[in-house]
Amino acid sequence: MKALGTYVGIVSTSLVICVLVLLLANRVAEGWLHRHPRILMSEADRINENTRAVREKMIPPDRAVLWYDLKSADEVRPMWDEFYHAGAMFESYVHFRTRPLIGKYYGATEAGYRLSRDPGPWPPDPKNFNVLFFGGSTSFGVGPYWATVASYLEDAMNSSGDFPRKVYVYNFGRSGYISTQEEILFHRLVSAGVRANMVVFLDGLNDFCFWDGRPSSWQALANYFNTTNDNYLREMAGYGIVTHWEKLREFVQTLPVVRLGDALLDREFSPAVPAYTGTKDPPPDTPQDDATLRRVIARYLDNMRQVEAVSKAYGMTPVFVWQPIPTYKYDVGYHLFYPNRLGCHVNSKVGYPMMAEISRQSMPLGNSFVWAADIQETLKEPLYVDAFHYTAPMSRRIAEFIYGAIRSRQLVRR
């Protein structure tokens, strides 16, 4: 009996010591994390921080005014404060959309589009010539709303003298979107009664990045849905008598010492974030195999054929533009922020030549398809404000090239 008491005493003392050590370790870890919060940043957060540093700090003031189409370099910081304050929100069918924010620079509306220099009414007034513009972040733009491809296209069309009516371009470009999401968004707008004279799609970069055809947010939404549904099924099976062990797991996962350990392991085993130093060394990333990239192209063409069919059924003129990117026919010696890691965008280095060959051989979307990927081939100047997004002058060039193709092909008759 005495031995049992001694054993219990030893066990109890050990448990108390363990609890005290755990409390002390968490207190120390918590204090350290408060002093060094950046250690908790994920790889995606660190990449975004690098990108923001490029946009705000590494671009010389005189270039920032030109590249963002601003009046003064003093506007750069407030523009980015507004830009990063907005973010995204859930939207049915397409997973996510741009959060509305009408500020001095951002200009994202409740209807889901970004303003152009001269905003039109919503819904579009049939008395005007209305254009719906779709794409990813290169369409949404990373500068003020008046410095986007869509806004410059509106400028070009209105200044051409070809239109007796006022032209308004509605920019539905959204960060991270692939052609599948754009197609669905277009269908949803048509189903809601939105009508336009023309629809323009600017694609190429993101489809190769998200090569499996799934939106960038699918894992987070799938995890939430599956967890919610599994919890409901367990409660139904147990007539509401369910022990929520996941709460204990969440408690453990949020302990400072656990979070610090996870952060250190993440830093140890994650690849280094891209450095935007203008390096010309070949990126170490490995692209998907050729068969996978050909399926990406096939999916894009199928999506656009469906858009073409719906457009013609509703009296709209479709225009499909294959966009320029820095990894195809551009002298990266002029790219000030060419990254030393391309990540998923390494697929474009292989996929773009494939698409070029297909477009030369078969013109898969006929007269409606505009190949703009090589308009930068002879340009000897910086065209990108970060790794992939266009400067304002480059956005204007793309817009004018698009309208030049529309006009020369008589896609819109006087």
Describe this structure in words.
This protein has 414 residues and is α/β, with parallel strands linked by helices. 49% of the residues lie in helices and 8% in strands. It contains 14 helices and seven strands. The strands form two sheets. The protein has a five-stranded parallel β-sheet, sandwiched between helices. The radius of gyration is 26 Å and the shape is elongated. The termini are far apart. The mean pLDDT is 89.
Strand content: 5-15%
**Distinct helical segment count:** 14
CATH homologous superfamily classification of the largest domain? SGNH hydrolase
Q: Helix/strand/pairing class, anyone?
A: alpha/beta
- Envelope shape: elongated
CATH class of the largest domain: Alpha Beta
Ends: how far apart?
104 Å
Secondary structure: helix percent: 40-55%
**Largest sheet report:** 5 strands, parallel
Q: What order do the helices and strands follow?
A: HHHHEEEHHEHEHHHHHEHEH
Walk across the major sheet and give the strand order. 4-3-5-6-7
- CATH architecture name of the largest domain: 3-Layer(aba) Sandwich
- Average pLDDT metric: 89
User: What is the number of independent domains?
Assistant: 2
CATH topology label of the largest domain: Rossmann fold
Round the Cα radius of gyration to an integer and report it. 26 Å
Number of strands: 7
